[in-house]
């Protein structure tokens, strides 16, 4: 009797079906505002188009939260008028020297993960506690960079579209909408236009980041309005699915998550998946992978969940996701918060529809675009050493399969031990550098790296962007 009751309570508390790189973003699901006045959505495109830039900027200013004195701006930029597609952004000018600080765009993965996750859980200035108070993060990236958090693609988080055809079905759609948002953003905030610009993101953003960077790279020479792109940073990146999928069976076996028999099954499934990819049978490849790993669009647990008993593949040491990673969802449903950030009663989407429309894209590679970016810009590719879903060794497989101008040097490059301070006994991670390219493995953290390792992540991104090298201080 007690056992049954206990189980019932547990069932009632457990989350629903999870999505590939989105499982935890989905738990942050906030459909509607709570009681109270959430204000109105702020659409900035009319101000940009009519040249009322000062007015637009003023309106987008986010009034400080109680006890805070921090300047930020947020609102909507219309990226496709036919479908009424709108992108939500939240911009934090750097604390130190905002007039010179690089502007860093952050894109969450998923597909369908809101960048509000990155802001509140990974590296924004605020941490939401269980009782909805805001705490200051110790090493926010907003200290040295002007951080631009964007809900991408439309249909993710607070971003929305009014039409089914407004959803992205491939990375071209993603890049086109994002580019429109960036061009308008830099018109509105023209003081930041000449600062260095970096595109960063993790997981499925391993596809978005090369897509938008390549789009900028292609358009810059032929447009008057240029974006000052200097480089990109990719964390635990899902850029080249094939090379990652091929590596799963032996990796999962080596870390003890699969036994011999399960490995054989996994191997067979992965072989079939890769076969579908070669045949460009994208949907079949997606469906197979979904059943095997993710269970995002099937109504039963995936094979991975069944054999490991765990729903979390973001950190080798954790079977479930830390509870505090979902507090921000409730925070974003509070009327006074919604009023402050100009989202009104807009539904906060869990990304399931975005994922549905990107199903075929899920198994396609952005390798050619990434190659061109590596040939022309600064690139950082990093992994949390404890990540499972895009493990360090799987990223290494992807890199070894790439042919770019530094490939030969990269294959021979010596790995360096990276410590933050000379006096540190602890090692922060490992680095291989070839010219403008850095590969970093950060110790002691998983997929959600800045959450697990705030200081190491902060040091890493600063060393990369400011070109400080990897010697201890
Ligand atoms: C808030 O910060 C601004 C500039 O950073 C400063 O001018 C202002 O006095 C501060 N206000 C309070 C109440 O601390
Ligand atoms: C809106 O999106 C559609 C589909 O991607 C595209 O064909 C069209 O050119 C877009 N319109 C604008 C104004 O960007
Ligand atoms: C909220 O929780 C924090 C600890 O997480 C505590 O310090 C604070 O006093 C609490 N605030 C309220 C209003 O309960
Ligand atoms: C996982 O286990 C459940 C319960 O036994 C089963 O219904 C489901 O088919 C399994 N999933 C896969 C992908 O094999
Ligand atoms: C939001 O509010 C407007 C009126 O301000 C209303 O027409 C609309 O239905 C509301 N939308 C949602 C999702 O509640």
UniProtKB/TrEMBL annotation:
<protein>
    <recommendedName>
        <fullName>Carboxypeptidase</fullName>
        <ecNumber>3.4.16.-</ecNumber>
    </recommendedName>
</protein>
<keyword id="KW-0732">Signal</keyword>
<feature type="signal peptide">
    <location>
        <begin position="1"/>
        <end position="19"/>
    </location>
</feature>
<keyword id="KW-0325">Glycoprotein</keyword>
<dbReference type="InterPro" id="IPR029058">
    <property type="entry name" value="AB_hydrolase_fold"/>
</dbReference>
<keyword id="KW-0645">Protease</keyword>
<keyword id="KW-0378">Hydrolase</keyword>
<dbReference type="InterPro" id="IPR018202">
    <property type="entry name" value="Ser_caboxypep_ser_AS"/>
</dbReference>
<comment type="function">
    <text>May be involved in the digestion of phagocytosed particles in the lysosome, participation in an inflammatory protease cascade, and trimming of peptides for antigen presentation.</text>
</comment>
<dbReference type="GO" id="GO:0006508">
    <property type="term" value="P:proteolysis"/>
</dbReference>
<dbReference type="GO" id="GO:0004185">
    <property type="term" value="F:serine-type carboxypeptidase activity"/>
</dbReference>
<dbReference type="InterPro" id="IPR001563">
    <property type="entry name" value="Peptidase_S10"/>
</dbReference>
<dbReference type="Pfam" id="PF00450">
    <property type="entry name" value="Peptidase_S10"/>
</dbReference>
<keyword id="KW-0121">Carboxypeptidase</keyword>
<comment type="similarity">
    <text>Belongs to the peptidase S10 family.</text>
</comment>
